[in-house]
Amino acid sequence: MSSVLYLKGSNLPGQGKKRLGECIKSQRVLMIVKLKNLEGVFHIRFIDEKTKQSDVEFRKLDATMTPVLVHQGIEYQDVDEIAYHLEKHFPDPPLETHDVEANALGGQATPMSSLAGWIKNKDPKREDFLRQKFEKSMGDIDHSLGKREGPFICGEELKFPDCILLPKLYHAKVAALYIKNYDFTKPDPRVQTSSETPPVFKNIGNYLKAAMGNPVFSETCPSENEIQEKWRNYKR
């Protein structure tokens, strides 16, 4: 059986099998593949979520969601298993870190859950509370990034924690700006539903700027339209 990596394809018309879609887990895996120069090792297939049930090869798998890695005849569906399988079988360059604080920072799930709660909110009375909850989670990340040395979590090079955190922050930045007109990386952004001036998270802004200068991240980011399409129904 050939070595194949199945990633979520675009949701934009006609692009489902041609480019990466909005999926922080798929982007994480693709970043790892690029960092390890494995694009020639694995056949990368983008799966159109709208037509995946008619995709003959994907239907042969036990999986229903992407990402999925098939390597040496074994199927891996869990994104952590995929990451560490790649690290074990392709150890150069090493991406794993044993820095507890770095791994904790990379594993932050709060930005996405608090962002979703804020964006989906329909109760004006809860608007400020949910915005502040999102800002609290972002503030914790910003503070932790401020204590790290170098442009990335572990210094000068992208590692596993970056591959986890960066897609989340990019998604949050695009979605918050699109739905709430709130750019948390620039001075004096304004939230449409509040008279307060939200904080600016400079460390996150610098982190994203550094990442955008690295093709491993910038070339794996889905288009802003992909992320906007996911949240379009919540734009008021």
From TrEMBL:
Q: Which GO terms describe its molecular function?
A: chloride channel activity
* Domain of life assignment: Eukaryota
GO (cellular component) term, any one: membrane
Tell me the protein's name. Glutathione S-transferase DHAR1, mitochondrial-like
